[in-house]
Amino acid sequence: MGREQWKKIWVGSAGNMVEWFDWFVYASFAVYFADSFFPKGNDTANLMNTMGIFAVGFFMRPVGGWVLGRVGDRRGRKAALTLTVTLMSASAILIAIAPTYGVAGYGGVAVLLVARMLQGLSVGGEYAASATYLTEASAPGRRGFASSFQYVSMTAGQLLGLGLQIVLQRTMSEDALHSWAWRIPFIIGALGAAVVFYLRRNMLETEVYAEDDGAHADPARGTIKALLAHKREAFLVMALTMGGTVAYYTYTTYLTKYLSQSAGMDKPTASLVSFCALFLFMCLQPLAGRLSDRIGRRPLLITFAVGSTFLTVPIMTLLQHAGSFWPALGLSVLALVIVTGYTSINACVKAELFPTGIRALGVALPYAIANALFGGTAEYVALWFKQGGIESGYYWYVAGCAAVSLLVYITMRETRTIDLHRVGRGDGDHDGGRGATAGAAAPGGARA
Fold first, then answer.
1. Under a CB-based contact definition with an 8 Å cutoff, are residues 136 and 77 in contact?
2. What residues does the Major facilitator superfamily (MFS) profile domain cover (predicted)?
3. DSSP code for 371
């Protein structure tokens, strides 16, 4: 691919990296700043209160999906991407400068709450905005490859956050981390968002959207009314997301806690397993995305769903008894290889389901709802089963969610060959989310 195409991929996906960096560092550094915003005396209660504010971000994601999806369809992909990164930068700055309980009482909590609401709005819109942009800005035969960088950037953000945490823990004292050094990652996140904002201010609108914005524009585009005309596609996005998001959160954010609390592994080793597994997972995304451009999206989705349905229980059971670094790493990598069948292409599959005028909202709102219901609750459900003494029940829950998605993957038709230009004009190659008809352009037959 040429330099210009790589630039589009970078600009379209870089926001995800900063988003997930900020998302990760809030959760991981909460243990250091929780006492700063609440009265001292009960560390556990303070941490729970801080994480309660963290949960607010998940509730705001569907709102962000609706608001920013509407912006993306009515004002353009560039406008939505620029707005998400603005909200992202504002939230990081607010957390970095939030006054402590000793300075402003519960005023600091109010600042923290507003920041998390802004971050939830931003994350809720960033996924769909970048998924839509990467899909539309790519050559038809490269959409799977280009959109795979969404999860490359998301994982890179998690790795950067984990790496910074390790560096600060090794170079700063505990007192410094609790006193002021916890603000450092948020300052870095704000600076990163400012860089992405500059890049996106100079980006070009996608040709697909620019074309639809003219003679073929629909006054109702980007509205709930327009989305209701595509209820089947919206349901497909939710069903597509269900199994994938539960599996993703299980083997990424929950993995370290599972290895340390359930498998009895020490925390440094558990963290190292997660870091190495995530790095390999990140490297796999473009390879799987490129494969989907050659053989289609459905084979990868079906492979993921079959693997998750039948291998989740054995993998999680073996992980519980792994005991050391290499067996745990091998099992974690195996699980993430299976999950790659979903993560590498889910962005472009969802974007390919909708016409141009409702594409951003069509991806954003159903995805955000499904992610909040299944992804955001995955860790809570896992701990609920554990507390009830039936931890293996969670393994079956993950497998069951994958089985539901498997039924969808089997019955849906291929979307790889859809011509996004013709879908946007609604002139014959869009079949209600089931894939391309015989009249759709071949992968190399439409403009980039």
1. yes
2. 8-417
3. I
Give the pair of three-digit tokens for residue 55.
């949960």
Evaluate whether 306 touches 286 at the Cβ level (below 8 Å).
Answer: no
Q: Which two tokens stand for residue 170?
A: 């090794």
CB 272, CB 325: distance < 8 Å: yes
Give just the sign of the alpha carbon dihedral 270, 150, 348, 86. Answer: positive
Interatomic CA distance for residues 166 and 172, integer angstroms: 10
Number of H helices, E strands in the chain: 21, 0
CA distance 265 to 279: 20
* DSSP codes of every residue in 275-308: HHHHHHHHHHHHHHHHHHHHH-HHHHHHHHHHHH
Q: Mean pLDDT, consecutive 10-residue segments, the chain of 448 residues? A: 83 89 85 85 73 79 94 94 93 94 91 92 91 92 94 93 88 92 95 93 88 69 92 94 94 88 87 92 97 97 98 97 94 98 96 94 95 85 89 97 96 92 51 37 35
Q: Burial letters for 384-420: b for 16+ Cβ neighbours within 10 Å, e otherwise?
A: ebbeeeebeebbebbbebbbebbebbeebebbbbbbb
Domains defined for the chain, CATH in brackets: 1-204 (1.20.1250.20), 231-436 (1.20.1250.20)
CA 151 to chain CA mean position, Å: 7
The candidate with the shortest Cα–Cα distance to 131, out of 328, 342, 351, is: 351
Give CA–CA dist 134/282, Å, rounded. Answer: 17
DSSP state letters, 26-61: HHHHHHHHHHHHS-TT-HHHHHHHHHHHHHHHHHHH
pTM of the model: 0.86
Nearest in space to 253 (alpha carbons), one of 11, 2, 99, 27? 27
